[in-house]
What does this fold into?
Amino acid sequence: MHRDPTPTTAVVGVVWDLGNVLIDWRPLDAVAAGVGEAEARRFLTEFDFGSWNHACDAGRPWAEALAELDRTHPEWSAHARAYHRNFAAALTELPASVAVVRDLHAAGVPQCGLTNWSHELYHAHAAGRFGLLDLLDHVVVSGTEGIAKPDPRIYLLAAQRSGLVPQQLVFVDDKASNVEAARTVGMAGIVFTDACSLREELVTLGLAPA
It folds into this structure.
C-alpha cells in the first residue's frame, strides 16, 4: 500500500475504483465459460485484450468492438464473444474491502465510485446486483461519460459530483498509474493491495475507525 504525503487540505471523502478493489474482476472466468480455460488463457496472453477492452470502457459500443474483431482478428471472435456473453461470471464482491465501505458509510464519510467500465456491461451486470453500490453517493462510469482513467478530466468530474474539491478526496485504485493521475489533480492517493492495509491508511487520514 502506497500513499502520498499528508495533504495540506483535510481529506473528508473517498473515491473508489471498483474493479479489483471492491469487486473482483476475472476476465479469464468469463472467457473460459465459453471456450475453455486453455483457450481463454491463450486469448488473454496473445491478444491485446487490455487495449481492446479499454476502448469499450471509454465509450465504444460493444457491437462495434465485436464487429471490428470479426473483421481484423476472426481467430479471436469466439473468445471475445464469450467474454461479453458470460461477463457476469467474471464478477465477485470482495467482502473485506466492502466492509471498509460499510464502516465509512456508517460514519457518514462521503464516498463515490470512479470506474473504468463499459456503460452497457456496468448497467447490465453491476448496478442492481451489488448492494455495496447503494452505499456510494454516486458512481462515475467511464463508458457513460466517454472518458476513462487515467484521463484527469474524469477525476475532476468525480470531485464535482461529490460537491468537494479534489484536495478533500482520497482516491483508491489497484493501478498505480490511475492513482498517480488522481494526484495530479490534487487528490490524495492510495494504491490498493489488500483491505487490511487500506483500512490502516484510511485511519491515518482520519477517515476510518481503527
